Amino acid sequence: MSELITYQCELKEGIHARPAGHIERLCNTFQSEVNWKNIRSGLQGSAKSALSLVATDTLLNDECEIILSGADARRAASELTALLKKLPQFEVAHEEESQVPAGYLPRSLREMQPSFIQGSRISGGVAIARPVVVKSLSFDDIMARAPMETRATAEEKQALNAGIEALKQAKLDILESKVGVEHDIIQAHLSIITDAAFQQSISHFIDNGENVWRATVLAAMDFCEILKKSSSKYIKERTLDVLDITSQLLTTVYGEHSLPQHGLNLNAASIIFADNLTPSKFLGINKKMLAGMVLTATGTTSHTAILARSLGIPTLTDIDFSTLDLQPQQEIIIDGNLALLATDPDEPLLRYYRNEMAVQRTMQQQMLSSVHQPAVSADGHRLEIAANIASVEEAEAAFNNGAEGIGLFRTEMSFMDRETPPDYAELAALYTRVMACANGKPVIFRTFDIGGDKPVDYLNLGEEENPFLGYRAIRTYPRYRDLFAMQLKAILTASSAGDAKVMIPMIASVEEIIWCREVLEAVKQAMRKEGLPFNDTISLGVMLEVPSVIFAIPEMAEYADFFSVGSNDLTQYFFAADRGNPQVANVYDNYASSFLRALQFAIDEVHRAGKWIGLCGELGASKDFLPLLIGMGFDELSMSATAIPGVKHALRELNFAQCRLMALEVLALTRSAEVKAALQTPAVKAETQKSILAPEFILFNLDAEDKNEVIKKMTDNLWLHHRTDCREHLCDDIWTREDAFSTAVGYGFAIPHTKSDHITDSTISMATLAHPIIWGDQQVDTIFMLTVCKSADSNMHMKYFSTLARKLMKEEFRNEIKNADSVDVLYNLMTRTLDV
Ligand code: PEP
Ligand code: MG
Questions:
Q1: CB 61 within 8 A of CB 38
Q2: Which of 133, 320, 639, 665 could bond to 621 as cystine, CB 3.0-4.6 Å?
């Protein structure tokens, strides 16, 4: 029997390793052969091999014909079709960092007329260290080391299979302890090791009289030839992974020392120069000694590049270092942000970059420390900021981004894209790993939300006219009571490892939550009998997605410990407007007064019942809505991990008392447009006014060599205190004025100034210098720097300039400044003088 599927690729990166892995896993459960043909490229391969699939070079919009032949072809075709439809949801965006145009030098660097080699950025950051050249092994190098001896075919095959098995097991063992990018990369390597076509190709070479060494290299080279022909840069760059696996397989079969281990035991801070570095070599390096990398032949999306970015190691490519005079004892500079390399820096350039490294380090520490500070408004109101996740990897990323808990774990993801449901052991292990990431912080497990737009074939929910209004989530639990109870048991097991909570999706009536409570108690009872540990007081919550709940909160609160608004579904059911249908997007309106009043009613009802209420739909990440949601009284907001740092920062700038007043005003409005305008008008945002003068902008006894360094250090200081998002452009603006005329005003003072788009709040900075410097044609030792917002009162800038200039005419004032012996004294003096 055979079936044909026609498929048009919707994936931006085409069928690369990750989607190919999903297809390969599913196809290997079929008896049928699955032949995948890309009509555009004419290339075809077996869908049972991820490498063959990748090699078909299937890119965005390519039409493909997939022929399934075998006894189970019909069923296989329907399962594969369902998977292909779901592929876009497994795509992970590969965000390449935005590149500064090649050749751009900020003014402060240009002033020094340095000599640089221009490369391309793989990963940002700056480092000063000694160069270390590492010889990369190519397939030719590896082939040249092939042992002469070839054993009997059966013996070679046995050695190959034992090697594959051992390497696979080693990868599985480390996979357990890894999360995030490293986990994904090991997973990708596992799929190369277990790839059927790769293994068959090696066997084929052995059948033709080659030993394992030569057979593996020949098979790998064949695959790389196909990958290199791809028009996708991403797919081309997988060749390094194949090289990596080849070397690992050979050292597994022939022993640790069968391939040379080139100088990767770094014993001082080093910048590595190599043609390329395989991911496993990279992972084996002591990162404390790895200051930077120049990888001539590595692309920006290779796995080594992805790892370098995730660990923040400055890395460049497109630099041919073979002709460079790299002295092992010479300190060199790598600037990943500007993609520059200085192999023979002079002392001023080293000084510039030492300062730059210190500034970047301070900023990084500040970001890290503030992202983990509690989410509190300027006037001390505490709000929990949590994350929405669907996997352990996302949990890890969320906590690194400062999440104070998981407000929504979409657990149905581990029920989808498979043949049979997960079992208790799998779920308990997964949930316990998430609890370990949470390290005591709360995790809300939303029980499986299957049905609607998330079908799962093995449950046979059946076709429905209106799936969103049909058999979905809690509504399916009575029929699949065992599956639901098994999931509860897994969550309860994880509850002994931290603060786990259970939340039920799509609750519409009090009877449903009573039923869930009964099942929960029954599962607990069974676990007690089995002697399994769990948290007996685990919280049970209602997900508020169906509008009927709003009017049943008092009775539900008798059985539920908390509520969380799923604003995506609540909005869709409140307005009877499909959340994914653009034709009714205007009906699906979060700004509507009716919707906001319903929310306010629910919040008040929950609080009256003495329970807490959060929000975990998309609305939670909206900065426009933030003041309103706080003012309305939500206790928690849960959002995607990437939104957390921004929302926490915005919250710190808000005043809770003003947010409450604003919420009252907004709820009295009657038109959606008015609500929108009110939320988007800064006047109703409860922002705190930042003062123009503050002690942190006074630099006492500043060590600087020249005017350039003073301006750079003063603008760096504004950046470190969040007054500018772009210090280079602010610096340029200050220099524009200096280029027209020097701002030295006599008596040892200079007043550089600018009205700029690159300062967020007008600021007066001041610096007294450790020793005088030349400024134009004068010597100066005290600087006042005025940086005024373009939007500020047009006279402000000149007002401060003339007040200062007038004051500086008076000897008494000048002496007071020169005699000041601390930031405090200067700050008080300036506050009085400028009347701010
Ligand atoms: C919601 O409906 O708001 C929600 C968070 O759940 P999901 O988006 O998974 O349906
Ligand atoms: Mg929902």
A1: no
A2: 639
Instruction: Report d(CA 290, CA 127) in Å as an integer.
Output: 10
Count the Cβ atoms, other than its own, within 10 Å of residue 495.
24
User: What is the 640 CA–ligand 2 centroid distance (Å)?
Assistant: 15
> Between the CA of residue 611 and those of 504, 541, 556, 559, 570, what are the distances in Å?
16, 10, 11, 11, 20
How far is ligand 2, taken at its centre, from the CA of residue 485, in Å? 21
pLDDT range class, residue 262, cuts 50, 70, 90:
low
What is the enclosing helix (H) or strand (E) of 541? strand 539-544
Q: What is the pLDDT of residues 341-363, one digit of tens each?
A: 999 999 999 999 999 999 988 98
Spatial distance between the Cα atoms of 551 and 509, rounded to a whole number of angstroms? 10
Asked if residues 441 and 413 have their Cβ atoms less than 8 Å apart, the reply is no
Report the C-alpha gap between 549 and 564 in whole angstroms. 11
The residue contributing the CA closest to ligand 1 atom 4 is 566
Angle formed by the axes of helices 392-400 and 180-193, nearest 10°: 150
Q: What angle do CA 84, 86, 89 make, to 5 degrees?
A: 130
Do 603 and 544 touch, CB atoms closer than 8 A?
no
Place of tokens 């505490």: 382
Asked if residues 706 and 738 have their Cβ atoms less than 8 Å apart, the reply is no
Round to whole Å and give the CA distance between 223 and 234.
15
73 contact partners, CB below 8 Å, separation of at least 6: 1, 2, 3, 32
Q: Is the CB of residue 752 less than 8 Å from the CB of residue 711?
A: yes
Q: What is the pLDDT of residue 94?
A: 43
- Phi and psi dihedrals of 576, rounded to 5? 50, 50
pLDDT of residue 684: 42
Report d(CA 268, CA 129) in Å as an integer.
8
User: Which residues, in sequence order, are bridge partners of residue 454?
Assistant: 451
State both tokens at 779.
Answer: 């010597």
**How big is the CA angle at 722 (ends 689 and 650), to the nearest 5 degrees?**
60
Nearest alpha carbon, ligand 1 atom 9:
410
Q: Which of 791, 721, 799 is nearest to 753 (CA)?
A: 799
For the entire predicted model, the pTM comes to 0.62
**What's the 354 CA to ligand 1 centre distance in angstroms?**
48
What residues are annotated to the active site? 16, 303, 616, 753
For residue 567, give the ligand nearest its CA: 1
Q: Is the pLDDT of residue 101 over 70?
A: no
Q: Which two tokens stand for residue 229?
A: 């022909």
Contact 712, 656 (CB under 8 A): no
Write the residue with the smallest CA distance to atom 1 of ligand 1. Answer: 566
Q: Which H or E element spans position 198?
A: helix 196-207
What is the distance of C-alpha 743 from the center of its chain?
44
Find residue 34's DSSP bridge partners.
68
What are the pocket residues of ligand 1 if the criterion is a CB atom closer than 6 Å to any ligand atom?
408, 410, 449, 545, 566-569, 616-617
Average pLDDT of the chain, as a whole number? 89
| C-alpha torsion 179→180→184→190, nearest 10 | -20
Tens-digit pLDDT profile for residues 568-605: 999 999 999 988 777 888 899 999 999 999 999 999 99
CA 506, CA 353: separation in Å to the nearest integer?
56
C-alpha separations of 656 from 43, 379, 531, 621, 674 in Å: 61, 6, 47, 18, 22
Q: What is the 176 CA–ligand 1 centroid distance (Å)?
A: 29
Give the count of beta carbons closer than 10 Å to the beta carbon of residue 776. 13
pLDDT tens across 605-648, in order? 999 999 999 999 889 988 889 999 999 999 999 998 878 888 89
DSSP one-letter string for 246-275? HHHHHHHHH-GGGS---S----S-EEEEES
pLDDT score at 100:
58
The pair phi, psi for residue 8, each rounded to 5°, is -110, 125
